[in-house]
Amino acid sequence: MLKTLVRCRLGQQLMKAIAIPVRQASDARNPFAGMEEDPPQKFVNPFAQPAMAIPEAGVAETKEEQEKRLKVLQLEADIAHQEGRRVPGLDFFQDHHWQHVLSLPTKSARIKYYAFLWQIEMRKQSEQRKKVLRAEETEKRIAEMRKEREENTHIIYGLGHTSMFLRIYDTTINHWQNNRLTRAMQFAPKMVLDCSYDEHMTNREASYAAKQLMLCFAENRLNDEPFDLHYCNAHLEGRCMESLKRYIPTMLNPEFPMNVHTQCFTELFPKKNLVYLTPHCREDLVTYNPDDVYIVGAMVDTVNNEPLSLAKAKRMGLRMARLPLDRYLQWGSGSGKSLTLNQMINIMLDLKKTNDWDTALKNVPRRKVVDEGELYQRKERDSWALGTRARKLNMRIDHLLDFEEDRRHVTSFGKPKKVRQRTEGMEFQLDTWATGKHKKKDRQN
């Protein structure tokens, strides 16, 4: 029986294998066969459906396909703007905006990004209107002051009038701070920001990193004794550097006091002086050494928490250290120990100036740590709770110990002492029971 079933199945498979090439040959002989069976094509509005799908990872998109998809998305945004939706006009969009739009996978993501850009556009228009109003008010005030001066021939003292104080403009302050950075390039200790983690960050993390790098430059410039900051491994066409250029447009100018290098820091400084600050190592930074060049990884790792800086330092054979945060700070429950780049710069600036970790770690946000008063109250609550539990478990064990002839003798099975003994005047009286009369008599006596 089994042999016949096997033979039948083998015959069926052979028939199927023969039928497929015969069908293909018949289709090749009759090229018009099957054309009448195709259903009529429906007209689909390309703007009512999501735009062209983004090619899968690993599939390269040609430049022509990208330009075609960009034109479709531009037409989609223009139509939505004309319909009065929360979409900015085409003149507001810049190249980096369209690059981000091309990277979005769905239509809902594009709508959210259009709404975000629309809010930025509305804010800019509001600031422009306020600026125009302030200019008009300033003109009116100046006209009134000129009229008042023409009517009054005496000298008027005060701000805006005759005064011994000179007005210091913002450009003057900028020149003075830039001059301080130029002096720091000659005499101040060096510090490096490693900008080689662009490929390990998302678009949002890259924009956050660029903002923090801008704040690092600003905080360092405001300090009385700034570092000589060096931005190494900078990919000028990457997402992080492009965002940083929008914050500091003059960063690549030769006269601007900002060191941006495409080379690695090992090519600029001696390898024996380099110390990589990474939170993943086990060695704490005890004291600040002005001869060492400290390196901070310019990475925002909200998604990717891998020890990339530790791996890079080990691969290059550099010394590593971490900030002694656990030794000097009591972290709050649920607070992360991650610090921003500008907070790291402020900590190193104060450490260089004072060489005191208690003063330097004051730059850690207070929301992440527990104050001494709150810590003392927490310890008191814990001790009180522990004492309450101990009092609930309290029991008498004096009957277990007996002292005989100045020698401690344990009588575990001895008869316990009586806690309550019969006293005089405690006889039970039925007539005064539960009436409280004996209490009144005791009070009267």
Q: Count the helices. How many?
A: 13
- Give the SSE order as H and E letters: HHHHHEHEHEEEHEHHHHEEH
What is the subunit organization of this protein? single chain
| Major sheet size, sense and barrel closure | 6 strands, parallel
| Alpha-beta classification | alpha/beta
3D architecture notes:
With 445 residues, the chain is of the alpha/beta class. It contains 13 helices and 8 strands. The protein has helices spanning 2-29, 63-82, 95-103, 107-151, 170-187, 203-222, 239-247, 308-316, 325-328, 341-354, 357-360, 372-392, 437-444, and strands at residues 190-194, 228-232, 259-260, 274-277, 293-297, 319-321, 401-404, 407-410. The protein has a 6-stranded parallel sheet with strand order 3-2-1-5-4-6, sandwiched between helices. Helix 6 (203-222) packs across helix 7 and helix 6 runs parallel beside helix 10 (341-354).
List keywords for this structure.
445 residues; alpha/beta; six-stranded parallel beta sheet; two-stranded antiparallel sheet; 47% helix; extended
Blueprint (SSEs and pairs):
Elements (H helix, E strand, L loop, with lengths): L1 H28 L33 H20 L12 H9 L3 H45 L18 H18 L2 E5 L8 H20 L5 E5 L6 H9 L11 E2 L13 E4 L15 E5 L10 H9 L2 E3 L3 H4 L12 H14 L2 H4 L11 H21 L8 E4 L2 E4 L26 H8 L1
Parallel strand pairs: 1-2, 1-5, 2-3, 4-5, 4-6
Antiparallel strand pairs: 7-8
What is this structure, in a nutshell?
By secondary structure, the chain is α/β, with parallel strands linked by helices. The protein contains 13 helices and eight strands.
